[in-house]
Amino acid sequence: MMFDFLKRLTDIIGSLVGLIILSPLLILVAIAIKLDSPGPVMADTPMRAGKNGKLFRIYKFRSMVQNAHEMLEKNPKLLEQYKKNSYKIVNDPRVTRVGKFIRKYSIDEFPQFFNILIGEMSLVGPRAYYPYELEEQQSHYPQSRQYVKVILSGKPGLTGVWQVTGRSEINFDKRVIMDAGYVKRRSILYDYWLMLKTIPAVVSGKGAV
């Protein structure tokens, strides 16, 4: 269909242009991460659920200390806050100094241009959810199952509706309604509008944790 063709063409061109323009920044961030704390430049995050539920590894700059996920699992209080707050932790003690800055302005997400280029993600789409997040939250919000099914019919995006309207301030039950609504809409002009809205949302840093 025309929408799918234009969306993929936009993804290829947009990701290539983004990687070329941002390459100096990506190099500087990589150096800053290595100087700030021991560990790899890229985050070792759990697999995400992509289109049709297919698992893939998302590319992100490391914004936390090494073994952050192991630390979370071994800290009951931190784990409780993580699940209670829609899988986010305010003032997360695992976040590094450089990590706080790149998370606030979503710079840690820029390596996802590689995911977009190879077709695992799109410039605009639903959040790339963790499989366990979907399972646990659907049990907590049974009404969300219908929306999750719609969400998994599309590719996750670097940006999307919830990212430009509150980011981490929006809970799962409201987030999936937004994401499902986006997938059903299928409008390339709406994609372009959301990309434009992303710029002030990122610059302001509002809703980031």
Q: Distance between termini?
A: 38 Å
* Helix content percent band: 40-55%
- In angstroms, what is the radius of gyration? 17 Å
Structural class of the secondary elements? mainly alpha
In terms of DSSP E residues, the strand content is under 5%
Poorly predicted spans? none
Which oligomeric form is depicted? single chain
Task: Let me know the average pLDDT.
Answer: 90
Q: Strands of the largest sheet, in order across it?
A: 1-2
Summarize the structure.
With 209 residues, this protein is mainly alpha-helical. It has helices at 2-36, 68-73, 76-84, 97-104, 112-117, 131-140, 145-151, 172-185, 188-204, and strands spanning 48-49, 55-56, 122-124, 157-159. Helix 1 (2-36) packs antiparallel against helix 4 and helix 7 crosses helix 8 (172-185).
3D structure, described in words:
Belongs to the bacterial sugar transferase family. The chain crosses the membrane at residues 12-33. This is Bacterial sugar transferase domain-containing protein. By secondary structure, this protein is mainly alpha-helical. It has one domain (2-204). The chain is built from nine helices and four strands. It has helices at 2-36, 68-73, 76-84, 97-104, 112-117, 131-140, 145-151, 172-185, 188-204, and strands spanning 48-49, 55-56, 122-124, 157-159. A two-stranded antiparallel sheet has the order 1-2. A hairpin with a 5-residue loop joins strand 1 and strand 2. The longest helix is centred in the N-terminal third of the chain and has 35 residues, at 2-36. The protein starts with a helix and ends in a 5-residue tail after the last helix. The mean pLDDT is 90.
